[in-house]
Please model this.
Amino acid sequence: MTTTDRPATEASEGRAYEYQSGTFDPELVEVGRGTAAGELLRRYWHPVARSAEATTLPRQVRALGEDLILFRDARGTPGLVVPRCCHRGTSLFYGKVEATGIRCPYHGWLFAADGQCLDQPCEIDRGRNKASYRQPWYPVVEYHGLVFAFMGPGEKQPVFPRYDIFEDLDDGEEIVIIDHFAFGGPSDAPCNWFQTHENAMDPYHVFILHNAISGHQFDPKLEIWPHIEWQRHEWGVTATQDRLLPDGTILHRVTETRVPTVRVIPTPTLTVLGATNNLSWALPIDDTHTRVYAMVRKPVGVPPQGLPVYDGDRSWFDLSDDEHQVYPGDYETQVGQGAITLHSEEHLAASDRGVSMVRRLFKEQVHAVAEGGDPAGVHFDEANAVQTVVGGNYIVGPDTDLATIPLAESMQALAPPPARP
Amino acid sequence: MTTTDRPATEASEGRAYEYQSGTFDPELVEVGRGTAAGELLRRYWHPVARSAEATTLPRQVRALGEDLILFRDARGTPGLVVPRCCHRGTSLFYGKVEATGIRCPYHGWLFAADGQCLDQPCEIDRGRNKASYRQPWYPVVEYHGLVFAFMGPGEKQPVFPRYDIFEDLDDGEEIVIIDHFAFGGPSDAPCNWFQTHENAMDPYHVFILHNAISGHQFDPKLEIWPHIEWQRHEWGVTATQDRLLPDGTILHRVTETRVPTVRVIPTPTLTVLGATNNLSWALPIDDTHTRVYAMVRKPVGVPPQGLPVYDGDRSWFDLSDDEHQVYPGDYETQVGQGAITLHSEEHLAASDRGVSMVRRLFKEQVHAVAEGGDPAGVHFDEANAVQTVVGGNYIVGPDTDLATIPLAESMQALAPPPARP
Amino acid sequence: MTTTDRPATEASEGRAYEYQSGTFDPELVEVGRGTAAGELLRRYWHPVARSAEATTLPRQVRALGEDLILFRDARGTPGLVVPRCCHRGTSLFYGKVEATGIRCPYHGWLFAADGQCLDQPCEIDRGRNKASYRQPWYPVVEYHGLVFAFMGPGEKQPVFPRYDIFEDLDDGEEIVIIDHFAFGGPSDAPCNWFQTHENAMDPYHVFILHNAISGHQFDPKLEIWPHIEWQRHEWGVTATQDRLLPDGTILHRVTETRVPTVRVIPTPTLTVLGATNNLSWALPIDDTHTRVYAMVRKPVGVPPQGLPVYDGDRSWFDLSDDEHQVYPGDYETQVGQGAITLHSEEHLAASDRGVSMVRRLFKEQVHAVAEGGDPAGVHFDEANAVQTVVGGNYIVGPDTDLATIPLAESMQALAPPPARP
Model:
């Protein structure tokens, strides 16, 4: 037997035969209880449902890889409990909700919204020891139409964070929850939450994906090549995109990500100028599924904001699978990275600096919790409950008071305007 | 970095954050060959199909986690064999059934109902060694319209057990097989068989599930709170429910479970009084699927028995998923315990004593077999083939001869009538 | 506790209780990179798509267990690359194909058909280091309407093999690709490729499956019991089937298998006599899925060849599942062997000799590669590119020049004609 040894030619290099599938960074993507990243996530409040979904009809919800039952007792208190009844294990999805709690359908044990057992009708004296039974539960808070849960250890429960952009509504204003995935696509996506999250610090993809590839999905001004900077804060990472407009003013666009799952993307259709009117949370449903909850403040009677339009008047939901291939958007490219992207296979470049910063800040918080500390953005006293949002689409002219413009320093780079790289 | 240590408040206790998913008891639930419980199950005959399903068209059946092919040769003998042909492995599902057996479609080997190879048409002299080949097979018996198989070791094959309630039919009587899951629901359920089985010794759930939760599914008399006792026998566990009726008579209801999979639930609509007219077998299809075969003796031309009715005249099959959530029954609560319930997470109470007794008796048989013995309810001589059933809905008045009433002792507790616990 | 020990009777033998599920031979069936058999397969060119499927719209293909993206750049060059973009990992399925390659939709990196990165539009100077990036790729060749890929190590890439039966087309002739699975059934089958492959050296099943079981699927002459011999060659295994026809001539039918995946089955409807007009490749999609690509040379305007007909004028695709059970064909019996057949459970007989020979030759090549050698049928110089096919349906009469008939020696056994075994 002889072996034919022939040298590889240059054209032979880089063949997929040598390609090995890679690995993901668990500190970025894992959401389960007991994982390093999952324990970090469990130090924050997460939206798990719309308030309208908490009713006297039990509802299955899934968050951070845990299956739970959401209900609202007949007195109005929402409850979030483990599905499996602590007595004989049938699902409280089939439970009957009463004034004071949810009753198991099998043998009638009744549990309050905080899990306390209130009745055991088949036991003597309706349960002499019932006070010692508690259905596993999580505390919930309602905020502007969303139900938030704290799924971490009780002694680490922070105050619920509110946001200044949603405080002090004027007459004629309202706050609504909208269903969309990053401005185009369904709100649920079959991929890990982090790849949808870091996208918010990746402004360059706007010029490629949302313009060159799939047509003009956003306002034409966003096609002007901007000067981009990123800023790290104690609470998150921001990106500034500064564009010199034809009229001599500057479009100073600021986007945010906040640890762990909040992102602020001022409407890319530029229908809202000034401070952002919206903010989103990425809910890690589990390691490979994500839901986006977006909250918008707006005048009553006005549609929340424009979504990308294809072929005149069609939305993402009107396109066929074949058309989604031809007109990919955020949903396709982020889901297209796989159920969990493989970080070891990436080749990050200079334009990916924002993504790197989001990852680094997140992993520092993971490490802080692993070492026994509290992560960024967590507060335990009500005085610190309201957070200040800086994102927005700011038009800056010669008369603008720069003191009113967040992160105004980045605009210094526009004199003289940068050449397109 | 500092750590915020705050004491847990009472309201913080019992959070799902501390909840750990549990484990099941393999000695109750496993059905596979080689498992302790699976070997016990293999010491009994199990129904695997209706007789009408054994035809010259091969049929796939699954029992105790094993896939098999059922057929009936053209002379009328049913056969049950491994699907994979012992020659080259294609499925006998595609076989041609002839007078003497089933012929593999690929190369034509012919196997009798007992697996014996009868022909090898592509071999010299049609197979000089064919007598040494045998397709793996199981013996079957037909009984009142069901095909039963013995799937254990040949030297442990017991006589086929018959039941006195199905012997000596009068003219005008017949025995039928009916499709339902514990009086409401499909006959196949995606959960382990044991959680459907032990339910038969859980009379308390009737008052909750079948009355308080989902309306009046059974006869109103069953809503009277009874005196309940359980009795252990060599062959199974029984429960007595005694109720003092308004007319001074006693409704003495007796239900049974028999090792391993038989349960006797006299019709809860009370349309049949006296000894039960029905008996059911739970067939463990595999670890997470169960079929219930129910046999009913009844007058010709009369419907088998009433099933629960919802909203006037609708059966389980007429309800939507949303309606099943609102009107759960046995199917929903038992499947709702999960594919295999988690015994380690249960909190059994006094009302669960019957369930505990069923489990204990079953596990004792598992241990008996593991130690080389024969389990309860198994007989090897035909003289012991007929079993005596005690279940029924008995109306006992002052003139009733208590010697004719099974387990009559339990009624002594009704003088004076018990207060509702 | 006593044990009932009773001797097994003869009727008890061979019960499925003793049957253990078996194992497959990994050297025959595994296709993944790094497995012994998978590495052998990677020394040959495999068809992965029709040429018409390589367009400017990217297409997902799967071959040897690897997911790939096929495209054809706007200048006509086909490319086959790993789906996951080497930059940030989104799928090139959503890429835009341009004149020189495929552009990632997310950040616009452009890759040539050979994976070379040609543009990085978000980087300075459109990517100063772009020459150092290469998307993992495989070389492809187009041949008579099929795209073939070489998925092995570059230094082992052989010349692309052509076949003499597809060379030198006359006017009025054409070569077409047809969709069918071994003459009846869909071209994709959910089973390992080897069980479809070895079937080609199993002529006996024709008399059973295609005649006795499922009616007369092929030409009636094939129902005459033949004299069968098998021949081993350096490049594969052949089978000869010789039949004395009523007119005194001999039908000398030759079928082939060639390492690794080629089989030559002259049309069994005998509509083409002489050298075969067709040849097929079994593409191992992955361990449990197979596609058959069949190439046919024929006069323009004539249908490729007759497929089996059921009930007058219905094809496989017109039959219901119930009808497929009653009229099984190659698809049913080969898929019926399971996703991967269990070689340890087989009982090969004298009529299976051809199957044994195909397996032995294949495993010898697996071992040759494992030991560092080159396998059979692989050539590295263009002079050896054209392969000679010997399969065909030859009618041999007294005037036939036997020198023109491949493997004519086998016909000597027909004098005197063999008795049917």
Q: What stands out?
A: Chain C has seven helices and 23 strands. Residues 152 and 163 of chain C are 22 Å apart (CA to CA). The first helix of chain C runs from residue 26 to 29.
